Amino acid sequence: MTGDRRNAMAQNRLRRHPLPPCDLRERTRLSYPANATAIVLAFSFVVSTPAWANDTSDGVMLPGLRATPRGGVVAATAAVVLHAGTVDVTISGAVSGTQPPSLAIDMPRFDWQGEAEPYPDRHFPELAVAVDGAPAKIKGRFAAYFGTVDITDIVEKAGLDPFVIADTPPLVSPGPDGAAAFDRLKELGAVVKSGPELVGSHFLAWWQAERHVQIDLPRNPALTLTLSYRARPGYRLLQLNDGTANARLRPYCLDGRTLAALLGHRSDAGIIEYAVVAGIDGTPPKTLTVEIGEPGPSEGPRALAAFCGTDGKSVVVNGAGSASSPARADSKGVVYILSVPAVPK
Fold first, then answer.
1. 264 by DSSP, 3-state: which?
2. What pTM does this model have?
3. What SS3 state is found at 219?
4. CA dihedral (69, 71, 73, 78) positive or negative
5. Looking at the 3D structure of the chain, how many domains does it have?
6. Reading across the β-sheet that carries 191-192, which strands appear in turn?
7. Residue 305 and residue 82: Cα distance in Å, rounded?
8. Residue range(s) defining the domain that contains residue 49
9. What letter would DSSP give residue 333?
10. 266 and 336 fall within a common domain
11. 51, 177, 230, 276: which has the highest count of C-beta atoms within 10 A?
12. Which of 164, 191, 216 is at the close of a domain?
């Protein structure tokens, strides 16, 4: 197959199968596959800068817990701790039914995001779970797709890591026992190679994948569950006197004028936005607390942090201080936390 035809196939695939809703930011993907060498070279020249300073992202939220059977675990209380760029969510719940329930998280489907993407690992590989203070065993499975074609079994038979798409560049090569499956992926266009630029047997993974995890629970009338993972917040520059600022700040019980006053009447602010699910089955806990710790390494010095209190007023934490306070989640159990980095003097 010629390179021109493969390029045409790729463009048609992207038109027919647009990226799923979880792909929240416009990416800087290079055209496939003629620029395979450019992908490798561009990665070598990436320079790390504070992302919020000159870019925009909607971030990636860890999806909420889903109980089987539905309603088998009900969140009574929840505590969200944001500290140094990590999130800990502790949920105390009541267990019902005669069979031991399980909890699952269905993570977003994604593909390679480009070398500039700040959160390429949308399968949350670092996720840790504890039940009643003891580490819980996480059962995992994956699904992989090329357009509308389910290639899960083919990727598995080829002996490939389905989440290599979180790497830049997403290089794969055929193994000794999966040659036939790898050839099938090549036929589909799910792995691609362009001319002599990629030396040896390396190809680019060009599929989408999603991770599903399951946590089996003991048959106890009550339990405490803790999820720990790295935050993947959104960030943007917000014009505080713009009419859209109020809508952007509403989840934190703030508006543009109030935030401008808190920041010394600045006209704009770089904001970092966290969204954390603190409920089960899309239902908020009966009571919720939020604890704000020191800012994460990617934030730098912090001017303030804020979230909605139970009275509908914003709880504001000034500077790099810490605070814990009752908080309010939305109707789906999501709590929103705002952080505003300090402007260097």
1. coil
2. 0.83
3. coil
4. positive
5. 2
6. 171-172, 203-205, 191-192
7. 11
8. 1-61+102-216
9. S
10. yes
11. 276
12. 216
